[in-house]
User: Fold this.
Amino acid sequence: MAFDWVEWFGYLASFVVLISLTMTSIIKLRVINFIGCVLFAIFAYLIGSVPTVFMNIGIACINLYLLYQIYTTKEDFKIINASSDSDYYQHFLSINQPDIEKQIRIDQLSIHDTSFYMLRDNDIAGVLVGHLNVEGIFTIKLDYVIPRYRDFKLGEYYYQQHPEFFKEKNIKMFSASAHDKEHCHYLEKMGFHLTKNNHYTLELS
Assistant:
């Protein structure tokens, strides 16, 4: 039986489209779906299915347009104090507990004295929890963003472009310990500098 590479190319294209639908991040979904549609259009061309070619090119263009909108739409960002005793704060932790506990156990958060809501277009996109000492060093214990906002925009806006949000909260420097390679990548992308043994710092300019 001869190896039919065209058929297997079709399987690959289908698999990429399928994988895209499992993404919780809308950015990843659009990017991977775009790649899958391009692959599927190539496969359709190889088997002579012109309608399928046009359909997948159309979907790919829609993905590009929506990605363009995501990256060019002006959004409003803000940080506000969060009370660890409030019902909504506890509700937020509860509904996101499995994801949050990849960073820290929920019961350990109560010992830390400073919590913030990170807002994006007036929606609570995440929470920042830690300890702020008298020298203005904020030790991050939880930097959590809900899946649909994980496109680095929050971190880039607060940590890099507008540190005044944190300065208004008397924060001069951040300290964080990375718990895995993905977290290391995130901290480095946000401008944190490795000091020792997966420990990172960021001084606000």
In short: The mean pLDDT is 89. The chain has two domains: 5-72, 77-203.
